[in-house]
Write a structure and sequence with these properties.
Length: 167
């Protein structure tokens, strides 16, 4: 079971890393086009909106990738300085809180997507569904990752540690 969870986490990372990298490359291209077109030609109207949407997607997917790799800022003073017998209990409580919050964000993000997704972006003409989809998607991924950390801790006692990035 733990191997399956590790394989799924690895697959999530294998998808998120190149997607975030490609998104950053596209964002650089769009912003470069925006700057060059404003400086030398007539500005391209869709670049500002495309850059905004890319930043939204990169923020949420980057947050999921950072959660996968344990790169978010964490306040660990209670876990580090508390009595050793409370360590596991505090880590479990933290993971449960994260999981509940992320599941709530998934549900609320999905509801928001349902009510506001039919709007159209003015410059690109895209349905906002394509922009808002990242909220339940990334929150769902982070909920899954917190559940797998919780399962690892409860099954094997292995505490969540920073995962090394592949070389």
């Amino acid at each position: 079971m733990l191997r399956l969870l590790a394989a799924i986490d690895g697959a999530i990372g294998a998808v998120l890393r190149p997607v975030v990298f490609a998104g950053m490359a596209v964002l650089i291209g769009v912003i470069t086009l925006q700057v060059v077109s404003r400086a030398f030609f007539t500005s391209v109207p869709w670049t500002e909106e495309a850059a905004r949407f890319l930043v939204i997607w990169l923020t949420f997917l980057g947050a999921a990738l950072a959660y996968l790799e344990r790169r978010h800022i964490a306040v660990t003073v209670l876990v580090d300085r508390g009595p050793p017998r409370w360590r596991r209990t505090l880590i479990v409580a933290g993971l449960v809180v994260i999981c509940v919050f992320m599941l709530s964000m998934t549900v609320l993000g999905w509801q928001f997507l349902q009510t506001q997704g039919a709007q159209r972006a003015p410059a690109l003409g895209w349905r906002m569904l394509h922009v808002y989809l990242v909220l339940p998607l990334s929150a769902g991924l982070m909920a899954w990752l917190s559940l797998t950390d919780l399962a690892r801790l409860l099954i094997s006692g292995a505490e969540p540690v920073q995962r090394d990035m592949p070389q």
